[in-house]
Design brief:
Helix content: over 70%
Distance between the termini: 18 Å
Shape: elongated
Oligomer: single chain
Mean pLDDT: 80
Number of strands: 0
Length: 97
Amino acid sequence: LGAAAIYGTNFATVKLLDDSMPLAVSATLRFGLAAAVVSAIVLSRESDDVDPMLEKERNLAFWSGAEVGVWYSIGYLAQAEGLLTVAAGKSAFFNAL
């Protein structure tokens, strides 16, 4: 239920941010904050003694995650651009389909 509430407020939040600042700035702030939080969690669990095979898998996971992040960012920016011309409720409805 909490996840649904957070997901539902996303559209209204993006719409409000788009009205008060440029799209690129709001996206940078939101993704920058998320990257800082996740990086702090990941780096706090990092160990000093790393097996070379594990290091290879970790690098592969990093680059795969970076690719997913690029595609996600493109989709997010397209959605935010669409919110400039459509109501937040209508956008949330069509994205939920």
